[in-house]
Protein 1
Amino acid sequence: MPDRAIIVVTIILGLASCSPGETSFNSEPSTASPTSEARPGEGTQLSIGTNDRNEEPPLAASNAEGEPGEPQAISLDRLMGSLDPRTDGEFTAIPANLASRQGLYGRKEAVDSLTRMADAARKDGVSLTVLSAFRSFSDQKRIWEDKWTGSTRVEGGRLPETVPDPARRALKILEYSSMPGTSRHHWGTDFDLNSLESEYFASGDGRRVYEWLTANAETFGFCQVYSPKGADRPEGYNEEEWHWSYMPLASQMLADYLTQISPERISGFKGSETAGAIDVVNRYVRGVNPACSDT
Ligand SMILES: [Zn+2]
């Protein structure tokens, strides 16, 4: 088979859903995976869309006058968490019986499906609790800068002392926390469930929760975007068994984000100057489970 045909087939397979019958395909290393093109250390060659000439995207949906029937692109400001979910008409609160605390919000369609999934889980004796949902740019900035400055200890130490080099310090934080402006939690489609520790999901109740989610979440549109690192997902965050993404909305939001983002837009927080050098968009935003799709 000519190389081009192999690549086309691989792209099609890479777009396949998480349905069980396709896991054998998805276990193959994907030569056409977008993340395979990431080039650490060459951040100035960040692959971005055609919209980067627009330095100031409008605050509202950017193509309100687009073709009838075409989904409207969501503005980069909103995709970077510049909104207030308490007053935003597209957002709603997580139901109290699912939320670990007050003030958790997500996009309405995603929260509706999450609620149905939690109801189904409960009938199977599995309890789902939302620990984190939408986070604004300023929420993420606080999390990031607390680690950057040493206010929050990382692996028992203060990062300015244990990892003084800025790029290496950013990569250490990126093992689990996103740079402000690059988090899927800005989108209102992604939720952290039950525990932020992998150990919880390894045995007992946590194991049962994880097995239930792996078997059933796809039915409700959810996928584990931060799957184990390996041939399928060589770049990005470490595995997060707790982070589930509502793909019917999130896959379009990722496309809108990648079309509009440019390196200079990732700014406004301590350490943001490292974003280009460590190629954060290609390695982390694109570094998601290729088996997740919008089906
Ligand atoms: Zn998360």
Protein 2
Amino acid sequence: MTGQIPRLSKVNLFTLLSLWMELFPAVEAQRQKSQEKEEGKHGPLGDNEMARVSTDKKQVKKTGLVVVKNMKIVGLHCSSEDLHAGKIALIKHGSRLKNCDLYFSRKPCSACLKMIVNGSAFERQVEALPEEMVSWLEPSGLQQVFQAAGVNRISYWPADPEISLLSGASGSEDAKLDAKAVERLKSNSRAHVCVLLQPLVCFMVQFVEETSHKCDFIQKISKTLPDANVDFYSECRQERVKEYEMLFLVSNEELHKQILMTIGLENLCENPYFSNLRQNMKDLILLLATVASSVPNFKHYGFYSGNTEQINEIHNQSLPQEVARHCMVQARLLAYRTEDHKTGVGAVIWAEGKSRNCDGTGAMYFIGCGYNAFPAGSEYADFPNMDDKQKDREIRKFRYIIHAEQNALTFRCQEIKPEEKSMIFVTKCPCDECVPLIKGAGIKQIYAGDVDVGKKKADISYMRFGELEGVSKFTWQLNPSGTCVLEQNEPESRESKYLQGLY
Ligand SMILES: [Zn+2]
Ligand SMILES: [Zn+2]
């Protein structure tokens, strides 16, 4: 390969992120766990009551959602116990959903879709205005009103829909009725409701596999545990592949066809379309599993601060490890949109609001994201692309590439509020150019790999991260307080209980 690396398309990225958001660690489960700890052993609901709640909700599948405006991500959501992802997006974005593209991990139910397509009613109102009222609008202004009405496009992953068609006899009649209602809403809406799956470019999966192996997180584990099972990464990946195929692919092909028929995709049931569709879905699932295992739930590895005094202050407390890992995988996915031919870097910024809110992400909300790339709008050949192996410093890339953190800050869709806890997740150590930017922007916590900390090269150096004060740093490492101290929000393992007993 002559410096060219395979790159994820934007549609691929949005699709993968929607699936990934469906897997956002359930806030309810986290809260319940901590409540159970406080109250002793039992949760607020008795066992019977718990069983009832879970059968009611079984039919509604948790759904991930990516909101995109002008091809930029402006929202990452997932269903909560109380609300579907689509409704959450409406509450959070309101009329700002105009002209947005929505990427769902499941076809949304009729209750969500009717609210989302409701924007189109605005268009009809304008059309119905008496002539004299319309005439004061400039022709271009009128056009703007038309364009501003409603969501632009609703894309969904073509497997089991939000109201599950796989959930067994009792609910299936309702699920079919809902699917019919969805079709009706779809055919009457201005928004384009569709399946938008793009095949991955050649060698994409292999490339992601290789680079995942080399990423900071896997490297760190294999460096510190040289005698550990070298294959832990492949093992972890195999498990993820199985798990995600169960979740995102209908394993029985006939059943999958039936679902496609019911949700109005009968044209995809014929071959070669059907087999192409399945292959495409499998490839994307494989890619997601590969990236997810690059920040693995492995032994006592996690994002920890080296400074133990810092951890004790509530404001500086790290996120639950599973949430931190989830956000880092978002950043890892973003890195595969890089324009740098050698090193892809991704960054994502989240903040924690004051209230827990209705979102499946709890109090956390999305602020912005980015990857390393040449200045927006530049053409492919505008800038040099050489790295530090090139002797002539003038033709190296370093003065032209915008770093992932810089893009995430520049193209953020929300303000960073000084009174709130905000955090940036970066797949590599922030460089000396970025560290003061992150601090200056008021970000309170950095989650990153630290393989490059303290390194200095001719064009890029990583000296300032180690000295940075006033921002909490959580880097990927073995739990420094020893394996016997429980991470606050981690489930208790038998091993840790045993070790605690020793104290
Ligand atoms: Zn819904
Ligand atoms: Zn940088």
Protein 3
Amino acid sequence: MRLLQNYRGNSLTDLEPYRRMLAVALEEARLGFDEGGVPVGAALFTLDGNLLSRGRNRRVQQGDPSIHGETDAFRRAGRQKSYRNLVMVTTLAPCWYCSGLVRQFNIGTLVVGESRTFSGGIDWLRQSGVNVIDLDSQECRELMEAFIAARPDVWNEDIGETGSEGAREQGSDR
Ligand SMILES: [Zn+2]
């Protein structure tokens, strides 16, 4: 899709393909919210908009702290020859763990639903040459805010703010 490859600015028209990708990740995030989990969803697409996989944070659901939205989508895509021309879409800016995944596999483009709630590693990714597109989605932000209001305990535990459990001091489960 020409618009994707030529993306340089921030006009609504240029962003429309990315918004469609984000809608898939947001669907996953909402499923996670309904399951009582951390509502972060993600998906992997080709540059021309074909969906490879989708996933969501299942830390609470499966008791597995390694299942973030991004890693879930990544694993479900199976082996790929190259990630340079793939797009990782996530409803919330990726934590260091998931930012590391983007770098490790040279994923060329990262689309972020929002980074106000949590900015994660997006500055580092930009500096590393990743094409980071922050859609600053109100829907994504409202979902995170609803989650934080409904489950402050889980949120604070995830970002390491309880301070009482040694295993959590590194925080953040985005
Ligand atoms: Zn993460």
Protein 4
Amino acid sequence: MITRNLFKTALLSAAVVLSTTVASADDGARDGAKQSKNLVVYFSRTGEQYGVGVISHGNTAVVAEIIAGETGADMFEVKPQKDEYPATYKELTDYAKKELFENARPAIAGSLPDLSGYDTVYIGAPVWWGDWPMIMYTFFESKCGQMEGKKIMPFATHAGSGLSGFDRKLSEACGKASVGAGLAVTGADAQKDPESVKTAVKGWLGK
Ligand SMILES: Cc1cc2nc3c(=O)[nH]c(=O)nc-3n(C[C@H](O)[C@H](O)[C@H](O)COP(=O)(O)O)c2cc1C
């Protein structure tokens, strides 16, 4: 596990490569005839990311899809209402740092899923500056009431910091949520070794 300062050094020394962003993954919870008892909620970015170059499919999206594949879960992607996140790494880290320092609550696009019919909600995001991206706190605070009585399973992708207290921070943001053990996967594994991620997900799910 690396400290925030060490990570900052790594961030600053990373090469900045111009990139384009390509939209990814599901747009919302599926409207199938039969609703699953499981839901995967995730936030993920494409464009230039740490250690993996320019990606067209976000690291957390890859993990979210593996979890959904293993559990038959519906999916909901948290997308910003106003997407101003830069597609270049250095600029994105600066933007996210500002959001963190301002304790921002960026608005989420579209309507949020109704959690009432779900037993288990898997919630994942990239680690940003040792924390959940601020937009995930928008989700936690909006949906805290509906998280009561559900099994909430946090997962993270990262570049060395591990889970970074995602479980504890989610519990703090929503005391009503019963938060289970988290899963942490590196972004590099998500992009380059999805089979190892599948194995890790299965272990996490107790399969
Ligand atoms: C703004 C920002 C801050 C980050 N902060 C951390 C961090 O504190 N610790 C860490 O291990 N990785 C950090 N990373 C790396 C991401 O967590 C990692 O690349 C992640 O897999 C990106 O997932 P995504 O493609 O789903 O957005 C950061 C990346 C960004 C863009």
